[in-house]
Design goal:
heterodimer; A: alpha/beta; B: mainly alpha; D-Maltodextrin-Binding Protein, domain 2
Amino acid sequence: MAETVVKITNLVKRYKELIALDNFSLEIQKGEVFGLLGPNGSGKTTTINCLLTLLSYDNGEIELFGEKMTSKRNDLKARIGVVPQQVAVFEELTVYDNIDFFCGLYIKDGATRKKYVEDAIEFVGLQEFTKFYPKKLSGGLLRRLNIACGIAHKPELIIFDEPTVAVDPQSRNKILEGIANLNAQGATIIYTTHYMEEVEQLCSRILIMDHGKKVAIGTKDELKGMIKNTESVVVNASDLEPAFIEKIRALNHVYDVSYHDDTLTVKCSGGKHNIVHVVDCFADNDVKYRQIYSILPTLNEVFLEITGKQLRDND
Amino acid sequence: MYFRVFIYRLKKNIHDRELILWSLLFPILLGTFFYATFSSIYGQMGVQTYRVALVNGSEETTQFVKTTLEGIRTEEGAPMFEVVIPEDADEQKLLFEDEVAGIMDIANMGDIQLRIAKDEVAQNVLSQVVGVFRRNAVLTQRAMQDPQAAETITKLMTEEPELLRQINAAGENKDPYVSYMYALLAMICVMASNGGLQVPIDSQANITQQGARVSLTPVNHRMYELVSLGAAALIQIVCTLVGVALIRLVFRANMGCSDAMLILVSILGTLLGCSLGFALGHVSSIRKNTKEAILLLFVTVGGFLSGLMAHQVKLLVEKSFPLLNRINPSAIIHDAFFSLNVFGMGERFYRSLITMVVMTVVLTAIGLCMSGRRSYASI
C-alpha cells in the first residue's frame, strides 16, 4: 500500500464571517502528481498555507509523512519544497546566490549544497544567467529561478502554487517538463493552477474545490465520467429539416441536440460509436454534410458542469 | 549554516540601494549642507559668555554671587558669565527676549531658584553652578551647627566643582557647528533603524514572500533573525563610521573629544538604532510600506522631541514629560553625544552609554520574543 504523504482531516479555516475551508479533507499518496483545481477564492492557497503552517486554522488535523504537522516541526519542513505563486527571491542577490542561500537553509554540508545548487540551475535551465540579478531576468526566467529556489534541496514533497501564471509558452513547457521529471525522480507533487490543460497534462489525480469544499476528486477519466456529457458529435450541414433533427434526437444515448449557424451539435451520454450512428442517420435520410467530428469532454466542461462556473475569470 | 546566512545578509544589504542611500548618502548630503551653511558662520564666533540676572538677593548676597560668577573663566581665560542686576519689572522681559540665559533668584542661598531660557547648554551650566551654591550654603550651615566638623566641611567646600572638572578634563565644546555635527551623527545612528527594520520584513511570512519562504525552512527562526540583525548592524556601523570619517577628515570638525570616544558612542548609537527598527518591525501584522512609514514617523518625531532639529524641544519635554526623554532612543543617543560635547567623559556620559546598551538589549529581546510566532491568522 502506498505511503500517505499528506493527510488533511476536517480542516476548517475562517476569516471572520467568511469560511475559507469548510471541513475540508484530503489524502495524497507518495509519488502522485496531485492537481488542486478551483476558481479564485475557492480555498486552494489557503489549503496550501495551512498545510505549511503559515496559517493557523480553526479546526481539523494535518499530517505530513504520517506525523502531525506543526510550525515547530523543522524535521518535516526539511522534507518539503515550496514554489509560491509570487516570485520570492531577493532582488539584491544574483541567481546563483539566491539558490545557494535558500538551499543553504536546508543543506549544511558545503559540497552537497554546491552540487544541489548546480543541479537545480541545470534543472531549470538557468546556466547562462547565474550571475544575473533577478531584475534583469524576464518573467519566465524569474519563474524558473523561483522554482530552483524551492526545489534545490531535493525535497520529497513539492508544492507548486500556480507556477506558470504570466509565463511565456517556452518557459511554461520547460516548467511543466521539469515538474514531470521531478515526479519521475520520486517527488510527490501538489500542483494548484487555473490552467486546465496543465492539469490534464500533468496530474495523476485531481481535486476540484469550490467555496472551501471538495467538489469532486479522482483521475481525469473518473472526473469526466462524473458528468452527463461523454461525447459531442458536431456536424457542419446546411438547411436541416426539423423532422430530420428529431430523428437525430431519437438516436440511442443522445440527450441533447442543437442547431445554430449550419452547425449541428449532438450531445451523447455513454455509448460507443456515437459518431457512426449519426453518420448512418445522415446517409439513411440522404442528407448531405460538409464535415463531421467528435469532441470528448475536457476538464473545463467537467468543472463547468460540477461548479456551474468557468474556472478562469479573465482568460 | 548561520555564518552563511550572515554573509548572504551582508551581501544583500550591501546591494540594497535604498538602504545604503538612507544610511550613507543621507548623512553625506546633510553633513555637506551643515558644513557649507554653518562652518563659515560659526568659525568666526568666539567663546560664548552667558548673561545671568540676579534677583531678590540682599546687597551682600548679590555682591558675593556676582563676584563668584564673574570669577569663573574658561580655559582660554575668558569670563564665562556676565552678571546683570535688573529692576523687578524687567525680569521676565529679559528672559523672554533672550537677553539673559537665566535668572537666579538668590533670596535664599540654600534654595536658589533658577529660571532658564531655551539654550540647553546654558541650562546645564547654570544648573551645575546653582548646585554648587546650594551645596556650599548647606555645608556652611552645618559647619555653624557642628564646629567639630568644620575642617572636613571646609575641605569639601574648597574642592573643585564637578562641572569645572569635567569641562577642563574633556574640553568643553559649545561651538554650534560642532553641535550640529553631533546632531547629524545622532541622526545617522537613529536612521540605522532602517537596517534593523529590514530583518523582520525579510523574514516574516505575513509581510513578504521572501519572509514566507524563509519561514518554511527548518532553520531556528530567532537565530536566523539575530544573525540577520548582526549583518544589518555591521553594515550600518560601517555607514556610521563613514559619516564620522567624513566629519573628522573632510569637514575637519573639531568634535572636542577623542576620536575613540566619538566612534564608541557612534557604534553604540547605531546598535540602538538597529534594535529600534528590529523591534518596531515585529509589531503587528501591518504591511511593509506601512511599517516603513511608521518607523520614519517614529524616527522623525523622536528626533524632533529629542532636540535633533531644535534644542528647545528637548527642554520642553524634560519639563513636562521627562520619562519620554529616558525612553526615546533618539533622545538617549542625542544625550550621549550632548554629554560628550558639553561635559566630556563624566558621570552623565557613562550613564548615557549604559542606557544605550540596556535599551539595545531590551529592544532586541522584544523583537526576538515577537519573532517566535510563525503561524498567522491571515497572510
